[in-house]
Write a structure and sequence with these properties.
Strand content: 5-15%
Order of helices and strands: HHHHHEEEEHEEEHHEEHHHHHHH
Low-confidence stretches: 1-18, 250-263, 389-475
Number of helices: 15
Strand order of the largest sheet: 1-2-3-4-6-5
Shape: flat
Distance between the termini: 122 Å
Largest sheet: 6 strands, antiparallel
Helix content: 25-40%
Number of strands: 9
Structural class: alpha+beta
């Protein structure tokens, strides 16, 4: 087994428990001119597009600049996976028939799976490639073809489909539906056990897919978390029909018996009868494996996870399944009972078809709806109106008072006052983070010495999600004539002060006239 194949396998699929081979030394990179030559020869992108992107590095020498690689990836000309080969000067092997390989999705004993793109239509698919060294081995090629034919015949929303089976030279490959998501094994390893409602929904969908496959005469024989993929929309897909037993396979034509393959499957999820003879597996064996998968989603580990593969297989045959409540006490008892029934040692004691399991779990979902997330409706708060200015006062004559306020959103980069020495008054209503709509009001009055000051009102509408603010809206104040009606209602002291000022001005003017006449 190569280092790539060993590292890509999960612990649950390493039945041989063999240590990984020693790591190979990383290959040295070619220099920039050789890299560009390999890129142009790879046919990964039109040469004119490549030249347009790499024009700035056309005369570059030495190591490959990171900026050059980033520019090629950002423009969609290559992928990081492709760059790993181009940096070594390798430019062949990126195409299989009508498909361009974009990256490696996974590898295992039955081959490697790549993300690929149709060169004409542009849609993405998954391509499973059978290793050349496996073509001449026992049943590998026959089983590979059997998997493609099985997947092509099954058409169900919870089963991944196969579109094509082809070969390029000595390379045999099948074109599969690309499911963009995460398999359940990786999800648990990353985030821990599923919530009860998530686990129930995944097993229900898997049971629906299995029920359809069983109705068509197929037995999967390798149900496990790594073969159940959950996409971004919450749809579960059953993958890898490489070990599926088709309906027309009889004892005399069985690949299992012809090649004397007695045990097929994964040790952690293997039904007792299947571990004795894989050809004796039926739909109830898939139900046992699905029950072990249910246990894994709820608890975070397989029911029998201690010891080597042979010891775990023996435990599946002889030991009663552990109670999930011993590890997770908050599980509903009715779901625990369903899980334990699916893992009964004798096939007759289990649910007899996957459709029964799907109905049981659907009924539980109806009676126990998933808790809804708390609504995040925006709380709209009233905007405080600006204070009314009394007649006869101006903004410059009012005392500076700083009122307490809370600012929501980014600070304004532009002010209403021009120059230095200005004073501002901010009045804002309180608002909580996470609201939308009108959440604060900013009313600024600024003054500056030696500068004509106007009154402006700025109302800022802040959205907590985006932090956007509206443009400042200036409201001009209409000018009033000097002798307007507002002057008639002023206090007597103000009138006397005005008369004194006028008399002083008249006295100064008379004095100046007298000096001029002398």
């Amino acid at each position: 087994m190569s280092a790539l194949e060993h590292d890509s396998q999960t612990p649950e699929t390493r039945i041989d428990d063999s240590p990984p081979p020693p790591p190979r030394k990383p290959a040295s990179s070619v220099e920039t001119p050789e890299f560009l030559t390999a890129l142009r020869a790879s046919n990964l992108a039109p040469v004119d597009k490549i030249d347009a992107v790499v024009a700035a590095w056309a005369e570059a020498t030495g190591p490959i600049p990171k900026a050059l690689v980033d520019a090629l990836v950002e423009n969609g000309l290559i992928t990081i996976w492709q760059y790993g080969f181009l940096r070594k000067g390798k430019y062949k092997g990126f195409f299989l028939g009508k498909y361009k390989l974009l990256g490696l999705l996974g590898a295992g004993g039955m081959g490697s799976v790549y993300l690929a793109e149709h060169t004409t239509l542009g849609h993405k698919v998954a391509i499973k490639v059978l290793p050349e060294k496996s073509v001449e081995k026992t049943s590998f090629l026959e089983r590979f073809k059997r998997e493609a034919m099985s997947a092509a015949r099954l058409n169900h929303p919870n089963i991944s489909r196969a579109y094509d089976l082809d070969e390029a030279g000595k390379v045999h490959f099948m074109v599969l539906e690309y499911v963009e998501g995460t398999d359940l094994y990786a999800r648990v390893k990353q985030d821990g056990p599923f919530s009860v409602h998530e686990a129930v929904d995944c097993i229900r969908q898997a049971a629906l897919g299995l029920d359809y496959a069983h109705s068509q005469g197929f037995v999967h024989r390798d149900i496990k978390p790594a073969n159940l993929m959950l996409d971004g929309r919450g749809t579960l897909k059953i993958l890898d029909l490489g070990l599926a037993l088709p309906p027309e396979e009889e004892d005399t034509t069985s690949l299992t018996q012809r090649h004397r393959e007695r045990v097929l499957g994964t040790a952690d999820y293997l039904a007792p009868e299947q571990s004795r003879n894989s050809h004796l597996a039926d739909r109830r064996s898939d139900i046992y494996s699905l029950g072990c998968t249910f246990y894994y989603l709820l608890v975070g580990k397989p029911p029998f996870h201690v010891g080597k593969a042979a010891e775990r297989i023996k435990a599946h045959r002889e030991q009663p399944p552990p109670n999930p409540l011993e590890v997770r006490a908050d599980l509903p008892p009715e779901l625990v009972e369903t899980c334990l029934r699916m893992m009964e040692k004798h096939p007759e004691a289990r649910p007899q078809d996957a459709g029964e399991i799907a109905k049981t779990l659907a009924t539980w979902q109806t009676n126990n709806p998933a808790p809804e997330r708390p609504a995040t409706e925006p709380v709209r708060r009233p905007v405080k109106k600006p204070p009314v200015r009394r007649a006869g006062t101006t903004p410059a004559s009012r005392p500076f008072v700083r009122s307490e306020s809370r600012r929501i959103g980014p600070a304004s980069s532009d002010g209403d006052a021009t120059g230095s020495g200005g004073s501002g008054i901010g009045i804002g209503g309180p608002a909580d983070s996470g609201q939308s709509g009108i959440t604060s009001s900013d009313i600024s009055i600024a003054s500056s010495s030696g500068i004509n000051v106007g009154r402006s009102s700025r109302v800022s509408t802040t959205s907590s999600r985006r932090g956007r603010r509206t443009r400042d809206v200036e409201k001009p104040i209409p000018s009033k004539p000097l002798l307007s009606r507002d002057w008639l209602g002023q206090p007597l002291g103000l009138w006397l002060a005005m008369l004194a000022v006028l008399g002083l001005i008249a006295a100064l003017a008379a004095k100046l006239l007298m000096r001029g006449g002398a």
